[in-house]
Write a structure and sequence with these properties.
single chain, alpha+beta, Pdz3 Domain, N-terminal domain of MutM-like DNA repair proteins, 3 domains, 5-stranded antiparallel sheet, globular, disordered C terminus
Length: 346
C-alpha cells in the first residue's frame, strides 16, 4: 500500500523503511518471505493486532534486506550507523525568515546533537541541513532517492561504519560544507531490546545489581519515577555522560546478611564509600577492594545501604548454593552459545 519509515518492534528503537501490506500476521509467524511473481520482494515481520486494525501488516523491503546481508558478509553484524541528531521540519515561513533562509522550501533544523554520536564535534544545535550527499533536503525532511521521496535518514541507512556522509549546512546565515564519518551511537542501545546475549550483572551479599536497559524495565516493571526518568531521558538529557551504566539494585536473594534491605530495591547506585559509580565495572572493582564496610549511597534522599564485607564473604557459598548462582558477575555482554544444528536435542 505504501512505504515509509516505521518503528521496528523487534528492537523497539530502530526505525527503517517498511512497506504496508494487506495481510494477517499473528505473533510468532513473522519472518516468512513475501513473494511476487515467484520472487522474494520482502520479509513479513509485524502487524497491528485485531483490535487496532484488521489485516494491516508490514514487510521488510529489499533495501533493508540487502544492507543486512552485506553487513553480515564478514560473519559479524555491526548494526546500523546513526547521525546521533534530532531535527525538526522547517515549513514555517516566519521561522525560515528568522534563520535567514531563502524561500526555496529546503532544509531541516538540527535540534539536538548526541555527544556520543559522530556529529558531536561537527554539527551544532541550530544548524540547518540543506543537502545530504548532494540530495536536496526538503523542508518536510524528505529527499528524492532512486526516484522515490523518502525521509532523509534513508541516505544514512544504506551506509556502514566508517563510511562518510556530506552535508551542505546553513550556520549563522552562512552556507558551508561538512563531512561526517559514520558510526553507531551506543547510548541508543540501552533503549532497545537485546537478543541472544547474556545480561550483565554483579551479585554481592545476595544483592543483584544490573545496568538499566529496556529489557530490565520490561522484566521488573519498576514504579519508581526516578528510575523511569533516567531511562526515558538517558539520551535526551545526556545522562550517559555521568552514568554510562545506570546501576540498579534489581533483586535481593534473601539471606540473614541482607535482611530489611527491601526498601532499597529499584534504587540507583550513586556512590560506594564516597567513590562515584559510573559503570558496572566500577561497582565490581569497588566491591573487590579491602574495606571495613561498604556504604552504598543511592541517588536521591534516604540513608545509605551498608554491607559488611566479612559477613558477605562468609555468606558467599551459602547464597550461591541456595540460589544456584553459578557466576557472581558478568561484566560483558556475551553471545549465548547455540547448539550445532546436527546436535541431538534431549
Amino acid at each position: 500500500s505504501r512505504i515509509d519509515f516505521q518503528l521496528y518492534t523487534h528492537s523497539s528503537i530502530d526505525q527503517h523503511l517498511a512497506i504496508q501490506i494487506s495481510a494477517q500476521i499473528n505473533p510468532g509467524n513473522s519472518g516468512g518471505p513475501v513473494m511476487r511473481n515467484a520472487k522474494v520482494v520482502g520479509v513479513a515481520f509485524q502487524g497491528y493486532s485485531g483490535d487496532v486494525a484488521q489485516g494491516v501488516a508490514y514487510m521488510v523491503p529489499t533495501p533493508v534486506i540487502r544492507r543486512f546481508l552485506k553487513d553480515i558478509d564478514d560473519g559479524h553484524y555491526d548494526k546500523y550507523v546513526d547521525l546521533g541528531i534530532t531535527y525538526s521540519k522547517l515549513q514555517n515561513p516566519a521561522q525560515r525568515k528568522f534563520l535567514g533562509l531563502k524561500d526555496n522550501d529546503r532544509g531541516v533544523l538540527v535540534t539536538t546533537v548526541v555527544a556520543a554520536g559522530p556529529c558531536a564535534k561537527i554539527l551544532r544545535e541550530g544548524d540547518v541541513l540543506l543537502t545530504i550527499d548532494d540530495h536536496p533536503i526538503a523542508s518536510d525532511a524528505n529527499v528524492e532517492l532512486e526516484g522515490e521521496r523518502v525521509e532523509m535518514p534513508e541516505v544514512v541507512e544504506r551506509k556502514f561504519k566508517g563510511d562518510t556522509v556530506k552535508f551542505e549546512i546553513w550556520r549563522d546565515k552562512q552556507q558551508m560544507n561538512v563531512k561526517i564519518v559514520l558510526s553507531t551511537v551506543w547510548p541508543y542501545f540501552v533503549l532497545g531490546h537485546s537478543y541472544d546475549v547474556r545480561p550483565r550483572y554483579v551479585v554481592y551479599g545476595g544483592l543483584l545489581f544490573q545496568p538499566l536497559s529496556l529489557d530490565l524495565i520490561e522484566a521488573y516493571q519498576p514504579t519508581d519515577l526516578r528510575l523511569r526518568h533516567y531511562f526515558d531521558y538517558f539520551v535526551l538529557e545526556q545522562i550517559y555522560l555521568q552514568h554510562p551504566d545506570v546501576i540498579v539494585l534489581t533483586n535481593i536473594l534473601p539471606d540473614p546478611i541482607n535482611t530489611y534491605l527491601a526498601p532499597y530495591r529499584g534504587g540507583i547506585v550513586d556512590e560506594i564509600n564516597g567513590k562515584k559509580i559510573r559503570t558496572l565495572d566500577d561497582l565490581a572493582k569497588t566491591f573487590s577492594e579491602p574495606a571495613d564496610r561498604f556504604v552504598v549511597k543511592m541517588i536521591g534522599d534516604g540513608p545509605p545501604l551498608v554491607l559488611d564485607p566479612k559477613q558477605a564473604e562468609a555468606a558467599r557459598e551459602r547464597i550461591k548454593t541456595r540460589y544456584n548462582v553459578v557466576r557472581e558477575q558478568n561484566l560483558e555482554e556475551q553471545a549465548i552459545a547455540k547448539a550445532p544444528e546436527n546436535q541431538k536435542k534431549i
